[in-house]
Amino acid sequence: MTDKKEACAEGESKENLIRQKRNKKQVISGSTVLSKTYSKWFAVFLLPTLIAFTIGFVWPFLRGLYLSFCKFVTTSDAEWVWFDNYVTAFKDASFRYSFFYTALFAIVSLLAINIIAFAVAYALTRGIKGSNLFRTVFFMPNLIGGIVLGYIWSLIFDGILSRFGTSILLDTKYGFLGLLVLMCWQQIGYMMIIYIAGLQNVPEDLIEAAKIDGASGKKILRKIIIPSVMPSITICTFLTLTNSFKLFDQNLALNGGQPFIFQGETVIKTTEMLALNIYNTFYLNVNYRGVGQAKAVLFFVLVAAIGLIQLRATRSKEVQQ
Amino acid sequence: MARNLEDLKYKTSFGKTVLTLIFGVLSVIYIFPIVIVFYNSFKTNDAINTDTFALPRTDTFVGLDNFVKGMTFGNYPFLKSVFYSIVITVLSVLLILLFCSMAAWYLARVDSKFCRFVYYLCVFSMVVPFQMVMFTLAKTADSFFIPLNTPWTIPVIYLGFGAGLAIFMFVGFVKSIPLEIEEAAMMDGCNTLRIYFQVVMPMLKPTLISVGVLQTMWIWNDYLLPYLVLDRTKYMTIPIHIQYLKGSYGSVDLGATMAMIMISIIPIIIFYITCQKYIIKGVAAGAVKG
Q1: Chain B interface, best mutation among A38, A142, A199, by max B CB count within 10 A
Q2: What would the pLDDT profile of B108-150 be if each residue is shown by its tens digit?
Q3: How distant, in Å, are the alpha carbons of A84, B9, B83, B91, B237 from that of B87?
Q4: Which sequence spans correspond to the domains of chain A?
Q5: How far is residue A177's CA from residue B73's CA, in Å, rounded to a whole number?
Q6: The pLDDT of residue A27
Q7: Are A49 and B102 in contact (CB under 8 A)?
Q8: Do A197 and B288 touch (CB under 8 A)?
Q9: Where are the alpha helices (DSSP H) in chain B?
C-alpha cells in the first residue's frame, strides 16, 4: 500500500518535473504557442522581404564571390582562373596606393570628426541659449547628398585656390584637405546628435557627487562623462571609420582622383580612394572586370574586419550601467 | 559667501553668453557654403569663375536665366529627374517600412534555426560595401524576368539591399515588446494578421519613424545604385542628373549647375525644417540601437 502510494507520488512528481521543464522551455524560447501559430504565416510575413533580399543581396554577393575567381567581360562568358585576379590586384600599384591613401584619410577624419563633434555636443548640453537652433544648423549638411556636396565644395575651394593660381584638381595636398573639410562639414552634425543623446544619459547625481568631493572639471570629464558615453563613442567611431573607407560620391564629385601621376605604364590617381579605384577598374577597362571583382572582395574583407576589430576594441571599454 | 556665489553665477552666465556668441558665428560660417551657391546661381558663368565670393552686381546679375537654362540643359528636363527621385524614394521607403517590419516581427517571434540564420544574414549584409555587389546586382536587375531597371521596379532592389539595417532595427525593438500583449489578443480571438496590424504595428511607430528617416536620407541621395541599375537613357534621378551636368560635358555650364543644385537642396531644407524633430530623434534612436 505504501509502496503504491510512493510510486504514485513518484509518478506525480515525475509528471510535475516534465511539466516544469516544459514551462521552462516555454519561458526560454518565448511563447511556443505564438511561435507555432505565427510560423504558418511565412508566405505573408517573411517571403516578400526574403525574395527581395535574395535578388538585392544574397545572389549578387555569391555570384560576385564566384566571379572574383574568373576572367569575364559579361557574366555569361566567365572562365575560372583561380587566384589570377587577386595576384593582379595585389601587383596593381594604384590599388596599393589608394589603400594607404584611404587608410590615412580614415584615421585623420576619424580623429577630426569625433573630437570636434564631441566638443560641440558637450558645449551644447551645457544649457546655453539657442542650443536647439545650433543643433539644427550643424545637422543640416547631412541631408545633402555626396555628389551635390562635392560640387558645392569644389566651387568654394576653386574660388579660394584660383587666387593663388592653383586648383583643387592640381594638388594632392589640397585634394586631401578639401575632402577632409567636406567630410567634417557633412558628418559633424550627425555624430554630434549621437553624442548629445549619449551625454543626456550621463547620471547627473554622479557629477554632483564628484563636484562636492572636489573633483575638477577635467577629472569629471575623464572619469565620469567619457566612460558613460562610451557606447556613443563606439557607434560614432564605427560610423566615421566605415564611412571614410566606403567614401565614393564625394570623392568622385570633388576631384575624381586628380591629379594623376604616371609611373611607367600605370597611372596613379593621387586622390583616388579604394571605392573609386574599384569602380574605375570595373568600368574604365572591360578586360579588368575580374580584377575589379577581386579588389571588391578584398575591400569587403577589409571593411568587415575593421568594423569588427574596432567594435570589439571600444565595446570592451564600455561600462555596464 | 553670498557674494562669492553671485560672482560664480555671474561668471558662468558670462561664459554661457560667450559660448552662445561663438556658436552663433560658427553657425553662420556653417551655412555659408549653401549661401554662396545660392547667390552664385544668379550670376553669369564668367563671374562665378573669376569672382566666386562676390555678390551679384548689376553687370553680373542674370536673374532666373540659370534656372530656366538648367531646366532643359543636356536634353533631359530636370523636373523629370526630380519626379523619378520622388517616385523611387517614396515607393522604396514604403516597401521597406511595410515588409521589413513584418519580416522582422516574424523573425523575432518564430523560433527556428532558419529564422536565426536569416537574421544573422541580415546583420552580415550591413558590413558588405556596395562595391562588392554592384556589378552583379546591375546584371541581375537587367536580366531578371521582370526588368528591375525602371523607377517603378527599382524599389524591389532597395528593399533587398536596405533590408539588413531595417530588420536589425525592427528586431531589436520587437524583442522589447512583452509577449503577453499578443497572447491576450490571441485569447480574444484575433487572427495573426489582425494581431500584427492592429496590435504590434502601432507600437512600432517610433522605430518606423527612425527607419523611415534613415532610409529616406540614404535613398534620396544615393547615386551609384540607380546610376548602375537604371536604364539611363530614359530615367535619371537628381544626383545622376547633377553629375551628368557637371561631369560629361566638355564645357560646363556652372550657372545652370548652381541653379539645379539649389533646386535640389531647397526641398530638402524645407522638409528638414518642418520635420526636424522627427529626423533628429530618428537618427539618435537609430544610432543607439545600432
Answers
A1: A38
A2: 888 889 999 999 999 888 888 998 999 888 888 888 888 888 8
A3: 43, 55, 6, 6, 10
A4: 2-84, 87-315
A5: 32
A6: 43
A7: yes
A8: yes
A9: 2-40, 45-50, 65-72, 78-95, 101-109, 113-125, 130-143, 154-174, 179-187, 192-194, 201-203, 205-221, 224-229, 238-247, 254-289
| Chain B residues near residue A304 by CB distance under 8 angstroms | 127-128
One-letter amino acid for residue A211 of the chain: K
Sign of the torsion formed by the C-alpha atoms of A140, A257, B227 and A57: negative
Is the domain covering A87-315 a CATH 1.10.3720.10 domain?
yes
| pTM of this structure | 0.85
pLDDT tens per residue across span B266-280: 888 888 888 888 888
* Closest by Cβ to A143, choosing from B129, B136, B268: B268
Q: Is the dihedral of CA A271, A277, A281, A284 positive or negative?
A: negative
Does the pLDDT of residue B290 top 50, yes or no? no
> What is the average pLDDT across B24-48?
88
How buried is residue B221: exposed, middle or buried, by Cβ count under 10 Å (0-12/13-18/19+)?
buried
Q: Specify the pLDDT at position A24.
A: 47
**What stretches in chain A show pLDDT beneath 50?**
1-2, 4-8, 24-29, 321
Closest approach of B189 to chain A, Cα-based (Å): 13
Contact A67 B217 (CB under 8 A): no
Cell of B51: 569672382
pLDDT tens-digit map of B85-97:
999 999 999 999 9
ipTM of the modeled complex? 0.85
| Nearest CB neighbour to A55, from listed B134, B157, B287 | B157
- Residues on chain A touching B196 (C-beta within 8 angstroms): 45
Kindly list the domain boundaries of chain B, sorted by start residue. 2-66, 69-289
Across the interface, which of A58, A123, A139 has its CB nearest the CB of B280?
Answer: A139
C-alpha cell at A49: 522581404
For residues B141 and B229, the answer to whether their CB atoms sit within 8 Å is: yes
Contact B193 A194 (CB under 8 A): no
Q: What is the pLDDT of residue B95?
A: 94
Q: Which CATH class is domain B69-289?
A: mainly alpha
More confident residue, B158 or A215: B158
